[in-house]
Specification:
- By secondary structure, the protein is of the alpha+beta class.
- The chain has 3 domains: 67 residues, 2-Layer Sandwich (Uridine Diphospho-n-acetylenolpyruvylglucosamine Reductase, domain 2); 104 residues, 2-Layer Sandwich (Uridine Diphospho-n-acetylenolpyruvylglucosamine Reductase, domain 3), CATH 3.30.465; 83 residues, Uridine Diphospho-n-acetylenolpyruvylglucosamine Reductase, domain 1 (Alpha-Beta Complex).
- The chain has 6 helices and 18 strands.
- 40% of the residues are buried.
- The mean pLDDT is 97.
- The protein binds flavin-adenine dinucleotide.
- Flavin-adenine dinucleotide binds next to strand 3, helix 3, strand 9 and strand 13.
Length: 279
């Protein structure tokens, strides 16, 4: 198993924040993963699974280790049924499906997630979410490998069973539709126009409160361009915090609190974070 000591956070996350993590383990297969978790539990060491780190704010203060499932990257397409490992890139999967004239996941092109992270979070955009196309997920529950159907995975708005139970996603099976018109480029164009892709970020910071747009509330609070050191509210899209230099997790967290306080004082609405803090 590959082990990376003193891993630079910026190399494993899309925010590219300053700082280091004690260790990142990269298991070869489920057997190694199971053994690793047993050992970490026995030694009382905290751990967290990481995908592409595109929804995480990680601080050097985090005293646990990370487990990256990048070796869980098998892809098997049989007719319109797609089985894929949890460490596989979501955007790469979209391209593979497009090549096979398989339609469904195009909306997700440009989301820099792994399959595991995307399912954990039930990623969505442009009116679709990943659960629209899921058939089954194979996961690790303690020491047991289980396959759950879509109905058992409790998907909701940016929500799934993985957020509430200590489960590890190993593999997902999607059911897609054949189509001669599988277009994905329009979604990337839309992202380029609306999102500050020129800076490191972790996508939307806050969930949209029911009936509101978090970005609009932040913009109306006059916070576009507001910064804490090198963490800044994007001018292009106010629900993005961008790293304009050498931001640390503490800067992002401080900025998040300022945004929450100002929006709550102005409107009475509390903005809940979509991004996850490890510290
Ligand atoms: C430019 C940009 C655009 C984005 N656009 C969107 C968008 O349109 N829609 C959207 O919903 N999100 C978007 N995001 C946010 C982000 O990509 C998603 O939240 C994504 O699901 C995170 O996937 P990841 O693999 O990077 O997971 P990570 O950020 O590494 O992890 C997120 C969570 O998933 C857990 N996790 C990861 N893998 C597994 C696994 N195998 N088993 C169990 N748990 C696991 C982690 O422990 C963690 O709790 C965007 C981000 C960026 C940077």
């Amino acid at each position: 198993m590959e082990i990376i000591n003193k891993a630079k956070i910026r190399e494993y996350t899309t925010y590219k924040l300053d700082g280091e993590i004690k260790k990142i383990y990269i298991p070869e297969d489920v057997l190694e993963l199971k053994k690793l978790i047993l050992k970490l539990k026995k030694d009382n060491i905290k751990y967290k699974i990481i995908g592409n780190g595109s929804n995480m704010i990680i601080s050097s203060k985090y005293d646990g280790v990370l487990i990256k499932l990048s070796k869980f990257d098998k892809l098997d397409i049989k007719d319109n049924i797609v089985k894929v490992g949890s460490g596989y890139s979501l955007s790469k999967l979209v391209l593979k499906c497009v090549k096979e004239n398989l339609s469904g996941l195009e909306f997700a092109y440009g989301i820099p997630a792994t399959i595991g992270g995307a399912i954990y979070q039930n990623v969505g955009a442009y009116g679709y979410s990943i659960d629209d196309f899921i058939k089954y997920v194979t996961l690790l529950d303690g020491n047991e490998i289980k396959t759950l159907s879509k109905d058992e995975l409790n998907f909701g708005y940016r929500d799934s069973i993985f957020k509430h139970k200590n489960l590890i996603c190993l593999e997902a099976t999607f059911e897609l539709k054949y189509s001669n018109d599988v277009s994905y480029k329009k979604y990337m164009e839309e992202r380029r126009l609306k999102q500050p892709l020129e800076y490191p970020s972790a996508g939307s910071v806050f969930l949209n409160p029911i009936g509101y747009s978090a970005g609009k509330l932040i913009e109306e609070a006059g916070l576009k361009g507001f910064r804490v050191n090198d963490a800044m509210v994007s001018y292009k899209h106010a629900n993005f915090i961008v790293n304009v230099g050498r931001a640390r997790a503490e800067d992002v967290i401080k900025l998040i609190r300022i945004i929450q306080d100002k929006v709550q004082a102005d409107t009475g609405i509390y903005l809940e974070t979509e991004q996850e803090y490890l510290g």
